[in-house]
Specification:
alpha/beta, Pyruvate-ferredoxin Oxidoreductase, domain 3, 3 domains, 23 helices, 54% helix, globular
């Protein structure tokens, strides 16, 4: 591509980078590179909105020396950008949307990894964008595309993504400078040189013609919950009880459900104890027995598999005790230290942001005490003043850690708490509905099981999920007996997971309400 760029016309380079990706460093390298080669360069930047709703746009224009000092632009102009560098895959899509990428001119250099935006995260279900849409748009919109997982390459080499992206720019031929000039620009900065050069080389090799291969879209920032299938800690008696429960799964459930049931059991026992694990298996066995009696084998025991997943999720609700427990685990501290690349000698300060409501605090208590607080304006106001609202807790301090440690220790009282009483009643009502429907409509019962996915998180998130779940269940009651009841329930669940405000869900429920006057035939 460098042959098409002239040193008597400015080369326009737009960099789309998120906070912490070193976009400013890359911009500085590009300016240094140009000036070391005897060119004139100018750079500007426009910060994006915080919390990943937009990237900072760094802009560089460079031009070979002329008789008169040129006037260079301060911002990228749609249709007039030669090189677009996107340090995250969806930022490449944003650049295409803004018209920065054009098929007659633009070389697009992008990292294929994902860091989910606020808009993607706030959707109750899976709100992630389809990366293949950007792939298609990039092929259609850019003159050339160079893409690889630059974040992974940088991490493997102990650097940041700006270094590997800089290597990709050099390999693309988008700028009329040799590789050695790019490396010299890095050396001239004098900071983290060795790691940056290693990441630069990795990025260079990744997009060179010899390394060309199909793109693999990754989601490096996605949080995935995994539960070990063994019991950490505990007495020998508790370990033996857990092993016995695992054998019950192998003996009483079909092989197709073993994997999910073992994971669910581990999660439930981790939440409370092996007695709670027995309760989990009793609930699951109740569904499986009905599944067997109603043609479940022909359906690959779908109801049993779904029940294994969602009963465990329902039983491991996020109360204040659970939140405190998860925040002080050694595995979490180790993960955070790894994420920030802290050495053994370094101290990592951690501040937890908590926002408990009066309801969450009162529900930790036994039922009678909780009701007294909930029914008393004075007591509710006092607790709200003393404990509720936004809190910042330093878990790297003895005081902050001890506070969360004591809260997590309340798990011994959890079974007598108001929160557990209410959650258990809700689970029982959900299961009664499932058991009642399954003999008449297997598919609808399976969809009812899956609707438990709507309830998640804690505080306001949990309250919104419960509200949507209740609305969907109202729709289910009106749908029962219709041949398309399962399809409509699945649609309601998807709308509830997709629509934060619930407007589309309300619209679908109005449509269902109209069925009563025109029943299906």
């Amino acid at each position: 591509m460098s042959a098409s760029l002239s040193n008597d016309q400015p080369i326009a380079i737009a960099i789309m980078a998120l906070g912490g990706q070193g976009g400013g460093v890359m911009q500085s390298w590009l300016v240094t590179l140009a000036e070391q080669q005897g060119w004139i360069a100018q750079s500007t930047s426009v910060p994006g909105v915080a919390q990943r709703t937009g990237a900072t746009v760094y802009y560089v224009e460079m031009i070979g020396k002329a008789a008169k000092r040129p006037v260079l632009s301060l911002m990228p102009i749609p249709g007039m950008v030669d090189v677009v560098v996107a340090a995250e895959w969806m930022e490449a899509g944003r650049a295409i949307q803004r018209g920065f990428v054009t098929p007659d001119r633009t070389c697009l250099i992008a990292s294929t990894h994902r860091q989910f935006s606020v808009a993607e995260k706030t959707v109750p279900g899976d709100g992630s964008m389809d990366p293949q849409v950007v792939r298609v748009a990039a092929d259609a919109s850019a003159k050339e595309v160079f893409a690889a997982d630059m974040a992974a390459l940088a991490e493997e080499n102990g650097s940041v993504i700006s270094a590997s992206m800089f290597g990709a720019i050099a390999a693309s031929g988008a700028l009329p400078f040799p590789r050695e000039a790019f490396e010299e620009a890095i050396r001239s900065q004098g900071v983290g040189v060795n790691a940056s050069l290693k990441a630069f080389a990795a990025g260079y090799d990744a997009v060179s013609p010899a390394a060309a291969k199909p793109l693999e879209m990754t989601a490096s920032s996605a949080a995935v919950y995994t539960s070990e299938r063994r019991m950490s800690g505990g007495t020998a008696e508790q370990q033996a009880a857990f092993a016995a429960l695992q054998k019950r799964i192998e003996r009483d459930l079909p092989p197709v459900a073993h994997d999910m049931a073992q994971t669910g059991l581990a999660r439930v026992v981790d939440f409370q104890d092996t007695a709670y694990g027995e309760e989990y298996l009793a609930r699951l066995q109740r569904i499986h027995t009905l599944d067997q009696q109603n043609g479940g084998e022909a359906r690959n025991f779908t109801a049993t598999q779904e029940a294994a997943k969602y009963i465990a999720a329902a039983m491991t609700y996020r109360d204040v005790i659970r939140v405190a427990d998860l925040k002080i685990r050694a595995s979490r501290f180790d993960r955070i230290r790894k994420d920030v690349k802290a050495s053994d000698e370094q101290i990592v300060a951690m501040t937890e942001f908590l926002h408990p409501r009066v309801e969450e605090i009162a529900e930790m208590l036994p039922r009678k005490m909780a009701r007294r607080i909930e029914n008393s304006r004075f007591l509710s106001g006092l607790i709200d003043k003393l404990f509720a609202g936004g809190k910042r807790v330093r878990t790297d301090s003895l005081r902050g850690f001890a506070m969360l440690y004591m809260l997590s220790g309340l798990r011994r009282m959890r079974m007598r708490s108001m929160r557990h009483y209410r959650e258990s009643n809700h689970i029982d009502a959900w299961m009664r509905m499932t058991v009642d429907i399954l003999p008449q409509d297997y598919d609808l019962a399976t969809e009812v099981i899956r609707c438990r996915r709507l309830i998640k998180g804690y505080s306001d998130t949990h309250a919104r999920g419960m509200s949507k779940y209740d609305k969907v269940m109202q729709g289910v009651m009106k749908l029962r007996g219709r041949p398309d009841a399962a399809e409509w329930t699945e649609r309601l669940r998807r709308l509830a997971l997709k629509d934060v405000d619930g407007k589309e869900l309300d619209g679908a429920l109005k449509t269902i309400a109209s069925f009563e006057s025109s029943p299906a035939r």
